[in-house]
Amino acid sequence: MSDTGWLRTHTHHWADWSLDELLERKGGTRISLVVPARNEAATVGDVVSRVRAALMETASLLDEIVVIDSDSTDATYDVASEAGATVHRAADIRPDLGRRTGKGEAMWKSLFVTCGDLIAFMDADLLDWDTHFVPGLLGPLLTSPEVHLVKGFYERPFTAHGEATPLEGGRVTELVARPLVALLFPELRDLVQPLAGEWAVRRSLFESLSVPTGYAVELAALVDTLAAHGLGAIAQVDLGTRAHRHQALRDLGGMSAQILAAALARAGARATEESLDLRQFVGDDGELEVLDRFVATDERPPAREV
């Protein structure tokens, strides 16, 4: 990474703050942990129960843990509820606003059912992680009033055939997001993992942002925060190691399309309300089959407007 003033002053390690210090800094600030989840019954219970035990029952850092169930067809809702989370189905939150699908939709809808002045987000499919993720993300927000959004970063190995290769886990980050940032938003080039699902934000900021309904929510939030408040409003925290299940390559293609669409919209090259048809190909024994995938690239308006 380049040696810049921002890197020196806005890059932290999760151990930079003790839990006691953060509890003292919290005062009357309300803090919500939001876990967007779709078909994550295998892992969401562990995420909820461990964080609840460490940061609600042992220490009172969090005021609530809210799981937003995004059209799951498995037992995600029941598992998360039994683990101690408040669980909402995304489709049931503000039905007057219509129904969308996607991770960004779940996170946007969380603004209508949470109480936190600060909101931390964690993915539900974590396999190698620890509860220090949450206080690590909250550290800059509780100690630096000028910081509005905090991104986590970590060593994210890619596991294949039983072997893990360090720092090779972010395929969409390396092939799509990082080149996009270099080309269109170079001020963000020192962010180690712009697509990290572990991040935290002030409610006052998040409710002012347009939110892509799909997987572009993290990159869009960074770009829009930069535009509205400057680079000094963003910080990043080293959280150590994180691993999760790897998605199929063609599914990553759909995610990449959403990220590209959001970035191009913010660069003025595309309308934000469009969708697209992504044509992919599968083959077996020399026979090609066309696979047409509908990719939603629409965005929700700032929550404070509705």
Describe the structure.
With 306 residues, the chain is of the alpha/beta class. The chain has one domain: Spore Coat Polysaccharide Biosynthesis Protein SpsA, Chain A (Alpha-Beta Complex), CATH 3.90.550. 34% of the residues lie in helices and 25% in strands. It contains ten helices and 16 strands. The chain has helices spanning 5-10, 19-26, 44-58, 76-82, 103-110, 133-143, 171-184, 203-206, 217-229, 249-266, and strands at 11-13, 31-37, 64-69, 86-89, 118-121, 126-128, 149-155, 158-160, 163-165, 199-202, 211-212, 234-241, 243-244, 276-284, 287-295, 299-300. It has an eight-stranded mixed sheet with strand order 1-12-7-10-5-2-3-4, sandwiched between helices. The chain has a two-stranded antiparallel sheet with strand order 6-13. A two-stranded antiparallel ribbon has the order 8-9. Helix 3 links the parallel strand 2 and strand 3 (64-69). Helix 2 (19-26) packs across helix 6 and helix 9 runs parallel beside helix 10 (249-266). The radius of gyration is 19 Å and the shape is globular. The N and C termini lie far apart (40 Å). The model has no long low-confidence stretch (mean pLDDT 92).
